[in-house]
Amino acid sequence: MKADISFKNINKLAIPALIAGIAEPILSITDTAIVGNIDINPIENLAAVGIVGAFISMLIWIFGQTRSAISSIISQYVGANKLDEVKNLPAQAIAIVVITSLLVLGATYPFSKQIFQFYNASDVILNYCVDYYKIRIFGFPFALFTFAVFGAFRGLQNTFYPMIIAVLGVLLNIILDIILVYGITDIIPAMHIKGAAYASVIAQVFMATIAAVLLIKKTTISLKITFPFNKEIRKLIVMILNLFIRTIALNIALYLGTAYATGYGKEYIAAYTIGLNLWFLGAFMIDGYASAGNILSGKLVGAKKYNLLLKLSTKLLKYGVFAGFILAILGAIFYDSIGRIFIKNKAVLDIFYSSFWIVLAMQPLCAIAFIFDGMFKGLGEMKYLRNLLLITTTFVFVPSLLILDKFGYKLHAIWFTFALWIIARGFPLIIKFRRKFSKLAQKN
Fold first, then answer.
1. Does 3 have pLDDT greater than 60?
2. pTM for the whole thing?
3. Other CB atoms closer than 10 Å to residue 75's CB: what's the count?
4. Across the strands, what pairs with 184?
5. Which residues, including other chains, have CB under 8 Å from residue 192's CB and lie 6 or more apart?
6. b vs e for 155-192, b when ≥16 Cβ sit within 10 Å of the residue's Cβ?
7. CB 300 within 8 A of CB 81
8. For the segment 379-435, what is each residue's pLDDT rounded down to a tens digit?
9. How many Å apart are CA 428 and CA 320, to the nearest integer?
10. At the N or C end, where does the chain have fewer CB atoms within 10 A?
């Protein structure tokens, strides 16, 4: 196996992964920007999109961990030149995750009102949440299917096809958002927030269809389910369960941030929604290098090339932190104009501007956490990731938010807490990685 960790090869994987990774946040940002400029109740519409977006993101992250698990196993078998042994694994994994998603849809749909009351939504905002969710949730199984197929492509060291799928999906979503939210005079009535939900669902169905076609036509992996189960299915399920528990801890943090912001008032949740979507966008852009780490680390550990693995981590860290600083600088340059893209309300913008600098300052720190997070997934170290997030959420995020909220810092409390949480997640991963693979490199 040829192990190439050159700048060119890393970016050959990272840049398409970056573009593919921002598909979901751009879908949410598109909804946010277009819905925030509706003439009727723009603040309430924006708040509803933010609350529902946070919940759906939680579901996708919890149940979409199949992508990382599939990628880890496939890439390790590619590194060991034994791909034939796991060719039927992706189809089995995809079937499991799609069936699970249908169960989640059936379980949450009837209780959508109660779910968003739990997020402190009420009155007009609650009604908008229910309307938006009852449409958008039907895109959930298709989103998980696409995530799982992306995992197979990543394991095969291919981030180009996921990029193509994501770009086409985003473009379709933007076009449909404009048409369905605002309408076309005498042709299509304005559907407002429901139109944004329909646009997202159609885009997700489209992406899933293209993903399936490309996987079947362009790879040796089939979507036909065969039995018996692959020998790695047990390992895959254990990985998914560990990531499942880990992602629940992650989403407890996201839930608390959304619930507290909603409790401060509709202007605060609207401002928080803008900041959160921009944070997700920055995170997924940096995550391109995390994806490269995920793909290459699995391949290198499969080939037992530990020296190259250490060099890869150093390079990715430099590239990721540099990208984080660039994002922070760009955000600072366009600080005032960014907020006005989403909403024109002065009260919301004032709250947003007062705390957005914290989101920007977090970007280089996020790079550290996300890059090593991606590498640990590629290595199959899901148990350690699970334990670390449980500890940091319990002993860093929750106490910090409670204390800072007590002092009345409001959105500043939420964003400072996220910053501390990111630091607590990132640096232990560096220490653990260096200790383990420095020893293995010396033995090797």
1. no
2. 0.76
3. 28
4. 188
5. 35, 38, 40, 45, 181
6. bbbbbbbbbebbbebbebbbebbebbbbeeeeeeebbb
7. no
8. 888 899 999 999 999 999 999 999 999 999 999 999 999 999 999 999 999 999 998
9. 17
10. C
